[in-house]
Design goal:
alpha/beta, Rossmann fold, AB_hydrolase_fold
Length: 233
């Protein structure tokens, strides 16, 4: 089985592209070409450039998928003419002039606070002991511990990078809300998806839903590739 669109997967902060393995395998099984971007997460401009180089290597049309901070990256890089659809997985979906920093500046009362440690030399980490509960509560404990101990430094400059023109304003977009997320509150996810007019699907899962439930994530991506909107609830 062959599908004409290439799926490009963009990871978020504190992690690298290896977490997409389950989603990759599910998509490949169903005949998709898949590219996994390895962004340095030093700055938004650098990550957009790396993602656009991946888009340039893709065959034909592209569905661009971002998790968490990766949503900011795909919002900017998704303006590439080869991109025909966007998918946000528990991701930031900024509007013009917004960044991760601006989107998290005023958390709702009672919202969980991610255990981000003070920056060192311009880079951030999550508290390793609190990482599993906050980021990957439904991931098997040994893997969650590995993710905590293998964190990628996330540049403060990347958090402050603002989107110029979000691609979701001109491209059909889908959003998977992780309903048990302790990093980006589900209500914040719903708000960003609603204001962008995205097709919204919800599934139980932590911020690492792409690791813990790759089949659900792959299903949303395949809907986007087929241009299928979810049923009205």
């Amino acid at each position: 089985m062959s599908n004409s669109k290439t799926i490009i997967l963009v990871h978020g902060g504190f992690v690298d592209g290896s977490g997409w393995e389950g989603v990759y395998n599910a998509l490949k099984k169903n005949g998709f070409d898949v590219i996994i971007v390895q962004n340095p997460t030093h700055s938004l401009a650098d990550d957009v450039a790396v993602t656009k180089r991946a888009i340039a290597t893709a065959k034909g049309e592209v569905i661009l998928v971002g998790h968490s901070y990766g949503g900011v990256v795909v919002s900017e890089a998704g303006n590439d003419p080869k991109v025909t659809g966007l998918v946000y997985i528990a991701a930031f979906a900024p509007d013009r002039g917004e960044s991760v920093s601006s989107l998290i500046a005023n958390p709702a009362p009672g919202a969980p606070v991610p255990p981000i440690l003070p920056p060192v030399d311009g880079y951030l980490f999550l508290d390793r002991d609190k990482f599993p509960a906050s980021f990957a509560a439904d991931v098997r404990p040994s893997l969650a511990s590995f993710m905590a101990d293998s964190q990628v430094p996330w540049g403060v400059e990347a958090l402050q990078g603002a989107v110029n023109e979000p691609a979701w304003r001109s491209k059909p977009s889908w959003y998977l809300v992780a309903t048990d997320d302790k990093m980006i509150p589900p209500d914040a996810q719903r708000m960003m998806a609603a204001r962008a007019g995205m097709h919204v699907i919800e599934a139980p899962g932590s911020h690492a839903i792409y690791v813990s439930n790759p089949e659900a994530v792959a299903s949303v991506i395949e809907q986007a590739a087929e241009g299928v909107a979810p049923p009205v609830r």
